[in-house]
């Protein structure tokens, strides 16, 4: 009976629509004018409702209150400690001024309020201003004397007000609250497009990300946005950060396995965690072993989603029994539970002993029918 549980039943393969729909493969240099976006917005019900709300409230945009643009000497800038965060020296050194990535063209304008007594108060951009001034003082800005950092002018967007409550709210908006942030997928897409459309390979990170995506695409596996309508299709996944953190080899093995055995499903994030642990522990991934793992999942849990749900519940019960309280989920438990079941059911391929010994007897905390099946085997 035990060997039957490892017998994988081949599933009829159907064409994957993502081969046509994949946005990362449809990259182009198409440019549209602003009117295209305006008309797109105006067609939506959300915008029509918004316009009605403005009209009902008698609200009008006042152009005179829009931020103004100026050039300001760095010496005029003041930092309000109760509005801005404390300076993050690591962010300055490792991100903004990183010599391998720093580009003058990407330095953003500072955001300030200007009070009636002429003070320029930073509400966003203290790290940028500090980096530029510090580079000047280090003698690393062309044509500028190290002692003249206070006179060096930068671009500033400013609003005239004495209302510091406005400044506090503006800082929140500029740093996340009310501002549409770039998603992990958007950042990945940018890297892929830089390489595929612009043919620019200057940034090693962009090149590495595009390479990982290409490996996944080779096996009909596709990163998509979390709320995208595409994530219902086979081979799609939304855990972009987890994907990017895996090595090329792990992506190759995991996507190949998914495309071989579960090509009809979207990808559960457990896939990447399991193959990552197998790689870290130098497991020998024979064809027999990989097929038997697929058969075990298919016959008992149907798919990876079903297995992930079951092992998380087993881990919850395991930690409560072992430690007297439920512990936070650990991603290595995905592969530990599966390998323990594999060996308990008579699997003969060698697996890393360290993984079997982690969370000892975790497999005994699966649902009763699974445990009884394992004991009978």
Would you kindly provide a brief summary of this structure?
The chain has 377 residues and is an alpha/beta fold.
Give the number of helices.
16
DSSP E strands, number = 7
Radius of gyration using CA atoms only = 28 Å
Low-pLDDT stretches are none
What series of H and E elements makes up the topology? Answer: HHHEEHEEHEHHHEEHHHHHHHH
Could you give a short account of the major beta sheet? Answer: 5 strands, mixed
Helix fraction, binned, reads 40-55%
- What oligomeric state is this? single chain
Any idea what the shape is?
elongated
Distance between the termini: 6 Å
Strand order of the largest sheet: 1-5-3-4-2
- Estimated share of beta-strand residues: 5-15%
Mean pLDDT: 91
Which structural class do you get from the secondary structure elements?
Answer: alpha/beta
Overview of the structural elements:
This protein is α/β, with parallel strands linked by helices and 377 residues long. Among the domains are: 63-174, Conserved hypothetical protein from pyrococcus furiosus pfu- 392566-001, ParB domain; 231-376, no CATH class. The protein is 47% helix and 8% strand. The chain is built from 16 helices and seven strands. It has helices at 18-21, 34-42, 45-57, 89-96, 126-137, 164-174, 184-196, 204-218, 240-245, 248-261, 270-280, 287-301, 304-323, 333-344, 353-357, 368-376, and strands spanning 68-73, 77-79, 110-114, 120-124, 153-160, 222-223, 236-237. The strands form two sheets. A five-stranded mixed beta sheet has the order 1-5-3-4-2. Strand 3 and strand 4 form a beta hairpin. The chain starts with 17 loop residues before the first helix and ends with a helix.
């Amino acid at each position: 009976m035990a060997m039957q549980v490892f017998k994988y039943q081949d599933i009829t393969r159907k064409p994957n629509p993502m081969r046509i729909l994949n946005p990362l493969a449809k990259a182009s240099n198409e440019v549209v004018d602003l009117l295209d976006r305006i008309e797109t917005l105006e067609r939506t019900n959300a915008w029509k409702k918004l316009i009605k709300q403005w009209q009902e409230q008698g609200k009008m945009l006042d152009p005179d209150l829009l931020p103004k643009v100026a050039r300001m000497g760095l010496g005029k800038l003041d930092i309000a400690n109760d509005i801005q965060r404390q300076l993050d020296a690591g962010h300055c050194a490792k991100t903004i001024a990183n010599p391998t990535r720093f580009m003058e063209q990407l330095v953003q304008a500072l955001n300030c309020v200007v009070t009636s007594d002429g003070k320029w108060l930073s509400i966003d951009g203290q790290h940028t201003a500090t980096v530029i001034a510090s580079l000047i003082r280090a003698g690393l800005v062309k044509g500028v004397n190290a002692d003249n950092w206070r006179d060096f002018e930068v671009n500033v967007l400013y609003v005239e007000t004495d209302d510091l409550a406005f400044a506090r709210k503006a800082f929140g908006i500029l740093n996340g609250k009310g501002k549409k942030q770039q998603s992990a997928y958007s950042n990945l897409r940018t890297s892929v497009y830089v390489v595929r459309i612009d043919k620019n390979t200057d940034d090693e990170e962009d090149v590495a990300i595009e390479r990982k995506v290409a490996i996944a695409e080779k096996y009909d596996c596709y990163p998509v946005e979390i709320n995208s309508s595409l994530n219902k299709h086979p081979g799609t996944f939304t855990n972009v950060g987890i994907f990017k953190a895996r090595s090329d080899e792990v992506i190759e093995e995991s996507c190949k396995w998914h495309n071989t055995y579960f090509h009809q499903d979207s990808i559960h994030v457990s896939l990447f965690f399991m193959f990552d642990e197998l790689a870290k522990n130098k497991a020998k991934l024979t064809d027999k072993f990989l097929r038997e793992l697929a058969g075990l999942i298919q016959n008992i849990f149907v798919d990876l989603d079903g297995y992930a749900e079951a092992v998380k519940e087993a881990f919850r019960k395991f930690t409560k029994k072992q430690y007297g309280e439920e512990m936070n989920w650990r991603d290595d438990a995905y592969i530990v539970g599966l390998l323990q079941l594999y060996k308990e059911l008579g699997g003969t391929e060698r697996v890393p002993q360290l993984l079997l010994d982690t969370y000892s007897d975790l497999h005994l905390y699966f649902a009763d029918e699974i445990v009884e099946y394992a004991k009978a085997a």
